[in-house]
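Can anyone check this?
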Amino acid sequence: MTTGFPLAQTLDSASSACDLVVRRYRQIGREMQFELAANAGGLAPYYVEITQGARQLKFNKVPHRLGLWLTIPDVDLLEGEAQVQVISLGQEGCATKAAFRYDASLKTEIPDTSTWVRQGSKDNLLDVRPVKKDGKLYLRDFAAYQDGRTKVVMIDGIAVNGLENGIEVRPGYLYSVTARWIDAPYNDWWNERRNRTVRQQNIWIKGASDAPSQGPLTKIQIPGWFRLSNNIQVDFDTSFPEFEPIKGKLTMQYRLNAGVAPDSYLRRGVRFLNGSEKGIPESRMHWTATPNYFADKDAAWFASLTREQVESYANVPGFGAYAFDFEFWNQKYPPEVRQRLIWFSEKIRKDHPQMYLMDYWGGGAYVNPHINKNGGTSPLSLAGDYTAPKANNPNFDPLPDGSSFRNIFNATPADVYPKPMFALDEQGNTPNNFVLLSAIHTHRINRLIDYQKGNKLIFYGWNRYMPLYHDPIVPWHIQLSAPAGELVSNQLEMMPASQALSLSLFSLVLFDGYYLWHDSGPYSADNNAYKVGKDQPGWGYEWFPADGKTPESEIGRQHTGHMAPPYWDFPTSYYVLGNWMAKQTEDILTGGQVKDLPFRLNGSWIQPRKEQVLLAIDRKEPFVTSVINGKKIVVLAVDSFQAPNATRRLNIQLPDGTETSIELYGNWPSLYKGKLK
């Protein structure tokens, strides 16, 4: 159990029938939390009265549930002792009174809630909030929970220490804080038999993210109009300014809000929406064919079909983009499956020559080797790929009759799904810190392979970590008003916002865009539009009614149609933000040439080599690249490995010989544009 919180002094416990007492308390800004103990259940809600001299504060029907202390959000008192009386409304005669000390100096430590948003888990294991002190901004975990197990806390996927004391951060960014506990060394996380627990809170803090840039480069900052919704629904599809998709780039997304028309997405930089939409041309749609396209039949069935039978399945609409994701089959197709998938693909390309066709499941000619320094593929072992580029995917080997995928697919995906956040190395990095750079390497080789040089190269991503080791769930807190109460929905870990923005920007600046997968249809704007029960999708839930008695059958009883979101999809907002930021450099990206740039590190200049991205992985160095178009330049850089609140001022050299500096904050990408001499 976590220790260190002050003890309350019991003044009166009127009922031996319930033995209700206040054990401990804590103050967070103007919020007071009281730890209750009793020998009976069904006591909530409570009537609470706080007194200090002549001042009296009354709070009626205060809810309370397992996993949280009794919380009073706005207590304004003077410095000194005060008293709290807690009276059960669930059991007559059950009450207690205790004394506690109020610290008036803490009243202003938490910024006004209009300036920050927090969503995710909500219980006594993790309670992260921004704190203002001496003109600086910090993130602090007020729960400081310890139970004897190994505990690892990460911000944006990098391990940090001292969050219970506060870590200085900048405003204008979203920080994903994940805490994990395991009854073993942390790198045994793969073992599902261990006692493992996860909590995650995602905190966005309003404010300017950067100071104005100086010198020959102008930083394209996160714009002042950018904000994240206080609700669980995203709102980029109405709050972002309108802009046309970047010329020549593919951006493929799904509509997230049922009440927002598809056209609103197409007018905000999205080139293709999901093919289930109505009222937009097929040419502005994309589709991913999953195993249910073939009624979940296995590869042996597919291998038994004649060419005529295969082609009868290939009558697909004229979508703008089409992807295969036959995930029930082996990713390395045997020859008989490959032959039939070639027939299938040839028919689609013949019918729709303008369609972008790709195979996500089978991959491109050079599939992502998922390089990392924590047990993955060694980066330097792949350096030879730049001098002798060749496919690493046997799916592209020609069949005996000469047929192959080589001249069929005209779009090539690189898998950028988030990776596990273990094993953990001494710098606090995990395999997930290598995802971006590994994908850049992948497509740099794909572009060197002759028969793929003209393909559109895209990142194919998702917004969450797909559990690989029966990972424990994240209990996502959802506040309902009708019926009043807390719905705790078991969810997956969200990817860091910094990673989402990086993947978006690098996919658009260096390559040809992204496909952002989504596993659900559009959501309702009604914050109470949920359905619960064993027949509902998801990983389980808990229901805590505010009155202590409303049954879960009342949740969504009057609602029909789309459900509300089960989690806050902030990564998609950052993918779209990256699209908008890249749009500001469209005049340079269109027809521009990619060139990595020299930078100064530890007193020496690092001259880029053709395998520079592999060197960045191996040495855990920043990666600095550019696009040059005449006398105009875009510079894009990232440090995937430094601490999430670290700032690095990096000297770089532009192609005209000019030396200047750029700033890298945490693992966030930095985008600049300027003119050369």
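Reply from J.R.: I decoded it. The CA atoms of residues 459 and 514 lie 5 Å apart.
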